[in-house]
Amino acid sequence: MAINKEVALTFDNNWSGELLANLLDNVQTEKAAAASKKSEEERLRDAVSALLEKLGAKSVQDDSLIFAGEKFVLPAQYAGADGIERARQFLADYENQQRKSFNFSKTYDYRPYDGAHAFMEVMKKITGTTGFGVTRHTFFGSQPPEFKVIQTSPTTSIQVPWGLVAFPMYEATFDIGGVRDNEKGVLFKLSVEAPRKWRSHIQAIFDLVEREVKENSIYRGRAITGQEWPEFLDTSVVNPDHVVYSKEVLAQLSAHVWAPLRYSSQMRAQGIALKRAVLFAGPYGTGKSMGAMLTAQIAEQNDWTFIMCRTGKDDPATVLQTAALYAPAVVVIEDLDVHAEGTSALEISRLLEMLDGVTNKGNEIVALFTTNHIEKIQKGALRPGRVDAVITIAGLDAEGFKKLITISLGRDFLETEVDWETIAEAYEGFLPAFVREAAQRAQRFIMDRNHGVPGVVTTEDLVLGANSLRPQLDLMEGAKEGAHRVTLEDRLRDMFDGSLRRTTVPDFGDNLEVEEPTVLNGALK
After folding, report:
1. Other CB atoms within 10 Å distance of the CB of residue 414
2. 516 burial class (0-12, 13-18, 19+ CB within 10 angstroms)?
3. DSSP 120-150
4. Rounded to whole angstroms, how far apart are CA atoms 18 and 21?
5. What's the CA angle centered on 145, arms 142 and 149, to 5 degrees?
């Protein structure tokens, strides 16, 4: 086991800097003491243990015994003929109490895998190991020690200890798991069984884990999905140059959604609230999802947590709970009309009240809602004060057509003198998805004529592609949404499915504590 200044800085904080300096001096002195019979590893372990005891003592108050001075001093109550015997008995009882095992626990306002990763990092630094797995014996049989593979980024993962883990040097067995909180969802819980004499050490470990997960969270400032056991989103797949909107839409997105992420400190200095609710509306194929992923990229670049609420997979209430834990955060809730439609779904007014609830506690959250059917949203929810901005995406402007067609085909396959005014007329009313398809159709026509060889696309080719696609656009605009008459059975099924989704958690054995669910507005929370 080795210790150096880099490791020592891991433990440094406002109230332990002097202790650390003394520790380093002591370690160097001990290294030079040839007369010492202890190995270097033993001396260093003792030094770290002493540091933990001092750090934990700052939070654990125990005035039963005070070690000071050079004389034995007994309280006045022990005066008299039998005072020495009574004092001896007190010390014997105190010693027995220190050897007795106690349970210690701490719940952290972070998701379980985040806490488990932080615990592993802390224990590796102070003990050099990740502990020794312990078999858990239950009524249903024995559960062997476990390492869980968790994501630490879209492309990396790591194994973390889970369940019971022993650290013999502290005679302690740690229980790593989660507990459900009715207001915050599943949280990381760290429990310990150890003799009372290690109380200060245990408290120091609790504090160091708190600091580690706060400073080196695997989720904070990253793009993740909205479930209680998050997964990472790969924002590198988004090319900002390929996100095309009209100038007006781009200006509104930049001001109402991206500016709070880019200029957070400046807005705080001006007293501008960073709680925002923005509705991103438009028909299918306008690039709302691409805009959401671009927002994720901008969030990561500016140390904001990005959380995506996926339609049919994530519960908006859970997403907002996670956002409160990892604020400042930007939340995207796709297809708001799905949540807002019908009496059994989560109404937008209630969703906005949840947003108000988490932001009223000082959390900075920018919420971006998307919808394909703004006409289905209750009018009262669109008033100023509930939704701060409504950004409606219509067709592209002439500059937008030019940029998207160039991206779709590449400059080398476009003639140099494209008549963009003619293109704008031919593509009028086309949404981004139709523009890309029409441009690529033009190239496919050419490749068909040239027996698979691509060619330079002309204005006429682009107009031909648009004209061939126009009937499909007319059909789409005239088609009705797939719908059916809602029956009582449908309503009951929706209510059951929604309640089940909000109360069911993954099976993590005996290592997830679940509180009794509460009833809110007739539905399980």
Report:
1. 22
2. exposed
3. HHHHHHHHSS--EE-PEEETTEEE--EEEEE
4. 5
5. 130
Nearest to 162 by CA among 138, 139, 130, 194: 130
DSSP bridge pairs for 105: 191
On the question of pLDDT at 519 being above 60, the answer is: no
Burial class (CB in 10 A: 0-12, 13-18, 19+), 501: middle
Q: Which of 164, 194, 193 is nearest to 176 (CA)?
A: 164
**Residues of the chain by 3-state class (helix, strand, coil), percent to 5:** 50, 20, 35
Which residue stretches of 283-335 are H helix?
288-301, 316-325
Amino acid at 396: L
For 306-360, the pLDDT digits (tens) are 999 988 888 888 999 999 999 999 999 887 766 555 433 445 667 777 777 776 6
Which is nearest to 122 in space by CA: 216, 231, 233?
216
- Which residues neighbour 381 within 8 Å (Cβ) at sequence distance 6 or greater? 340, 348, 349, 352, 387
Listed in order, strand segments (DSSP E) in 196-256 are 223-225
CB 294 within 8 A of CB 242: no
Residue 287, classified by CB atoms within 10 Å of its CB into exposed (0-12), middle (13-18) or buried (19+), is buried
**How confident is the model at residue 524, as a pLDDT?**
35
Cβ atoms within 10 Å of 385's Cβ, excluding its own: 7
Which distant-in-sequence residues (6+ apart) come within 8 Å of 210 by Cβ? 106, 108
Query: In angstroms, rounded to a whole number, what is the distance separating the alpha carbons of residues 385 and 94?
Result: 61
- 442, 450 in Cβ contact below 8 A? no
Report which of 300, 299, 298, 322 is spatially closest to residue 309, judged by C-alpha positions.
322
H or E element in which residue 230 lies? none
Distance, CA of 125 to CA of 130 (rounded, Å): 9
Please write the tens of the pLDDT for every residue from 25-68: 665 565 555 445 556 666 666 666 666 666 655 555 555 656 66
Q: Which residue has the tokens 């440094």?
A: 12
CB contact at 8 A, 56 and 199: yes
Residue 498, classed as helix, strand or coil, is helix
Q: Return d(Cα 324, Cα 286) in angstroms, integer.
A: 30
Strand partners, 439: none
Buried b (16+ CB within 10 A) or exposed e, 262-278: eebeebeeeeeebbbbb
pTM: 0.71
